[in-house]
Amino acid sequence: MSPKGTVIVGLSGGVDSSAAAFLLKEQGYEVIGVTMSIWGEGYNSVPGGKHSCYGPDEREEIREAREVAEKLGLPYHVFDCSRKYRVQVLDYFRNEYLSGRTPNPCVKCNQLIKFGMLPEVARQEGLAFDYFATGHYARVEQDRVSGRYLLRKAVDPKKDQTYFLYRLSQDQLSRVIFPLGGLTKPEVRAIAGRFDATLQEKSESQDFYSGDYKELLQVEEKSGRIISSKGEILGVHKGFWNYTIGQRKGLGVAYSEPLYVIGLDKEKNEVVVGTREEVLSSSFLVSDLNWISVMSLDQPMEVMVKIRSASTEKEACIEPAGPDKVKVTFRNPNDSITPGQSAVFYREDRVVGGGTIDTVIK
Question: Taking the complete model, does pTM exceed 0.85, yes or no?
Fold first, then answer.
């Protein structure tokens, strides 16, 4: 047994997870490759579309991951996590969209499946290990004063994935290793190329699902009205679940100025649109909280807040707003504050915590 311990690495056959496994082996860990099987029959991913996390090309992904493990001389195991994935991720995804909210399936998957069920099942199946590692771009360290495990941004700001990892618990963070957190993407590609030249040019996973969301939602098209905030009928949609708050493109309506989605009414099956001024808000409530750098929030705190994975952080104040709720107030009005999405709080490069956007305060 290695003096550094044994680590299982979530392998996808891609550049990042492969480089992570290679680095850990090079650093002296005993490394075991593992992959979670989550694909369920009955859905159709887009043929020739972008590779997705959830799709029928999973078999090819497992084959590629097995090849990586063989090249690195690693034991390799595949564990079936599909049943829990359907309940914890797909059902959540479906319920959120059909409630007029916009979900974060990758956040849920990381918390409950990838960093939850996968290591748990591996241990139940007899694997003995000390750590779990992935190819995510993030860093973990333990605070010497508080003893809490901290989640820090990756060195490469373009690749940082802390937004998707903010729900990890202290227990999960205490046992995780992110070998790529201090590297840039070009450096990672070069490392992967040291044992497999084909990985240097391999494309990355892009989407949660590349098929028609109607299949995952298990719904048929249902036409409804697109109306203005004043009640004017401006057009027709084929299902309110095809829209998200702040959306501007693809509305299919003509107006004297740009329009944005400002509301989704599931009861009336209506999409409400408005002007730029109408989509802007300064405050909102966040629930279902998870704290990382602090135990809890008992007084106002100045932070930077990110409300979408692709959005930039904005200055804001967070303050307690009742049991398991926080009020967020931006210094300047913001758009696309979307119920169901995650709001993640940062101080410098550390994740303070985060939660689910609940209610926008107008």
Answer: yes
